[in-house]
Amino acid sequence: MNTPTSAPTPERILQRLDWQVIRRLDGLLQGDYRSLFYGYGVDFADLREYQPGDDVRYIDWNVTARMDTPYVRQYVEDRDITAWFLLDLSPSMDFGTLQSLKRSVLLDIVATLARLLTRHGNRVGAIFYDRRVERTIPARGGRVHVLRLINDLLKQPRLPRAPFTNLSPLLEAALHGIRRRSLIFIISDYICAPGWERPLSLLNQRHEVVAIRLWDPREVELPDIGPIVIEDAETGEHLYVDTHDRGFRRRFQEAARQREAALSESFKHAGVDALFLSTEEDMVRAIVRFAALRQQHRRRA
Prior knowledge:
Elements: H1 10-29, H2 34-37, E1 43-49, H3 61-67, E2 71-76, E3 82-88, H4 102-118, E4 123-129, E5 133-140, H5 143-155, H6 168-177, E6 183-188, H7 197-206, E7 208-215, E8 227-231, E9 238-242, H8 246-270, E10 273-278, H9 283-300
Parallel strand pairs: 3-4, 3-6, 6-7, 7-10
Antiparallel strand pairs: 1-2, 4-5, 8-9
């Protein structure tokens, strides 16, 4: 997840990820990516009575009302996946170190997942968001399409400043624009205005949604380096703080802990699996950890 000094090309980025990430994943997951990508399919098969432990999202309320007992819809798993990446490209995504910005990690995780999906015959598309929904890349398959997606991300302009991010328009664009049941990755740092939780829940009722939360360690714990000026990556506002102050560092860390807990609760309430990915974490380990989490959830479903 490094950011080289010279401008990388889409081809070189994909080659690097093939060698450094995808080959390692092939060995660790033994080529079985169902734990990452396959959930409930898109083809309706049958109805049956609700049993304890069934996913309440699949209750058919019309049939339930007629029969006076809960019924759930069953689906036949469809191996051909259409996946969408909903991408937050707002200014806060440019936070991090010179070696690894959140935006760089976003590009790597998108390229990796898109490559894994398309090489098995699936299609991927993307919706770009900064101040607003900027563009939609239609879902297609093949290596050339992955290269196009990487190229478009590299060329996406970086906004110097913007109003505080609002993810609701991005989620609503997917809610109204993606018709066929799909696998949706929402990739963001989730540093944004409130109100996105409801469209997230609605989106998860129609699709299989995975939230990928990108974060940098300096956003949750300040180092003891003396007086510094902190700049808000979204608004450009400046705040002078003294990081020698243990009390301030402790309050900063506690506020970050509460923010992370609230975010985890929002994902849990929406029924969405979430991968929390640090700019300093090995991506392969993070994906394997997430695959294990998905397997656990599926066994309980």
